[in-house]
Amino acid sequence: MGMTTENADLWVFAYGSLMWQPGFEYAERLPAAVVGAHRALCIYSFHHRGTTERPGLVLGLDEGGACRGIVYRIEQTRCDATLTYLRAREQVTDVYVETTKPVSLLDGSGQELEAICYMADRSHPQYAGRLSLDKQAELVLSASGLSGTNIDYVLNTVRHLEEAGVHDAPLAALASRLRSPQRPKPLP
Fold this sequence. Notes:
Layout: E1 10-14, H1 17-20, E2 28-45, E3 56-74, H2 79-90, E4 96-105, E5 112-120, H3 133-142, E6 144-145, E7 148-149, H4 150-163, H5 169-179
Antiparallel strand pairs: 1-3, 2-3, 2-4, 4-5, 6-7
């Protein structure tokens, strides 16, 4: 895709599991934000956190709003290996569009840079759109995939966001519902 230039480092924006489980070597990890997209549980997971029979929900970067997350700097010598890894991880079913977006560093520098982002593909059959809290909880409670349970994914993400000083109200509301002792029992 030619997203890197000769002798340039690569920046990758993380808004979900890449924040707490990047899986690649990086030179720097900084708080950052992207404008024009927001974090949302808007992707049906048939692989990592669910199956086609019992889909889970995973995060996508969806159009509109803003999103706080992490940006990783990848040294130029590791760019190709990192992109190969990310594409294998994020593009299992091509539900994300790999693109570059302007990202603002939140380290006090005011610096803006271009970073790779994985945007939700709204035309993909796995795009779930905006689901009610009840529907999200129902899907998350009953789903599990190759990378583990969907509930662990959501709770880990919320915990890591909070540790990074990011309060994501919709995700926090779902996490509260998932932790609740009165939560609905998963379907058999």
